[in-house]
Amino acid sequence: MPVNSLTAGRRDDQQSEGTRPRSAADEVRTLPDLLRDGLDIVFIGINPGLYSARRGHYFARPANRFWPSFSRSLLSAAARRALGVSTLGPEHDAALLDHGFGFTDVVKRPTANAARLEPGELAAGVPALLAKLAAHAPRLACFHGVTGYRPFARLAFGRAAPAIHLGPQADAIGPTRLFVVPNPSPANPLSRPPEQTRWYDRLADFLNIDAR
Question: What pTM was computed for the model?
Answer without folding.
Answer: 0.85
